[in-house]
Amino acid sequence: MELIILFFKSILYFFCFYLLWFASGKIVNIVEKIAKKMGFSSFALSFFVLGILTSIPEFSVGVNSLIKKTPDIFVGNLIGASFYLFTLVIPLMAVFGGGVKMVHGLTYKDMIFAIIVVLSPIFLIADNVLTRTEGVFLILIYFILVYFIEKKRSLHFSLRDLTIHRVINATQIIIEIFVFLGIIFVASNFIVNQTIEYGKILGVPLFVVSVVILAFGTNLPEISLAIRSVFLGKKEVALGDYLGSAAANTLIFGVLTLLNGARINIENYSLRTLLINLFGLGVFYLFSQSKKEISKNEGKILLLIAFLFILVEVLFK
Predict the structure, then answer these.
(1) What is the value of pTM for the model shown?
(2) Which of 202, 204, 236, 309 gives 20 to 30 Å between its CA and that of 151?
(3) Domains and CATH numbers, the chain
C-alpha cells in the first residue's frame, strides 16, 4: 500500500512541475505583452523582465522551503538552476538544433560582471554558512549590475501618454496573474513537501536532492523555451533571457536569505560544487565568446559537464 501511495505521489510530484511550467509561462506571456507596449527595449525585456519572471518557480519553491524550515532546499535549487541554464538548457538547443548563435548586447566587461553576479552565491557559501549580511550583498550586487547596464544602454521605458486601459484591462490582468501565482505557490508547496519525503526515503541530504532534481524541474520554463526554439528552427539564442534568469537567481538568493532571518548552515556543500560551477561557466563563456556561438560538439561537452556535476553530487553526498 505504501508503495502505491508513493507511486501516485511521484506522479503528482512531476505533474506539479508541469503546473510550474504552465503557470509561469502564462505570467511571462502576459507581462511580456505589457512590457512591449510600455516601450521596453528587447534587451531590457529579455534580461530584466523575462529573467526575473522565469525565476518565479525558484522563488516560490524557496518561500515554501523557508516555511518548512528547510533552507537547504532553496540553496541547492538556486545553485543547480543557475548551473543547468548554461550546461544543460542552452547545450540541449545546440545539440538538437545543430548549434546555436549567441546573441546579446553586453560589452566584454558587462558580460564578465554578469557571470560574477551569477557565481557570487557559490563563493559566499564556500564556508558552508550564509549570513544576512551576505544576503544583502547578493541583492546589492544584482542591482549594481542593473544600474551599470541600464546606464550604458538606457534601458528605461517611456510611460508618456500611457494608460492602463491602453495596455490591457487592469482588473482582468491582476486576476489572471494572481490565479497563476496561486497555482505556482500550491504546486511548489507540494514539491517541497515531497522533496523532503524523498530525501528521508533515499537517505540523501535535502541539498543534494534539490541541486540534482529540484533545480531541473524549476528550470522547465527555460527548457520549454529552448525546445520551442529548436522546433521553430531558430538558430539564435537571446542570451539575455538565460543570463538574466541566472542573475535573478542571485537576487532571489539574497532575498530568501534575509527572509530566513537566521544564518543558514549548509553541511553538504563542498569545494567540489564550487569548482565544477566555476569550470562549467568558464567553459561556457569561452565557447560563447570564441565564435559567438555554441556548436553541436561544444554543446555535448557542456552536457558532459552537467552530467559530471550530477554524478559528483550524488556519489559524494
Answers:
(1) 0.79
(2) 236
(3) 2-156+171-315 (1.20.1420.30)
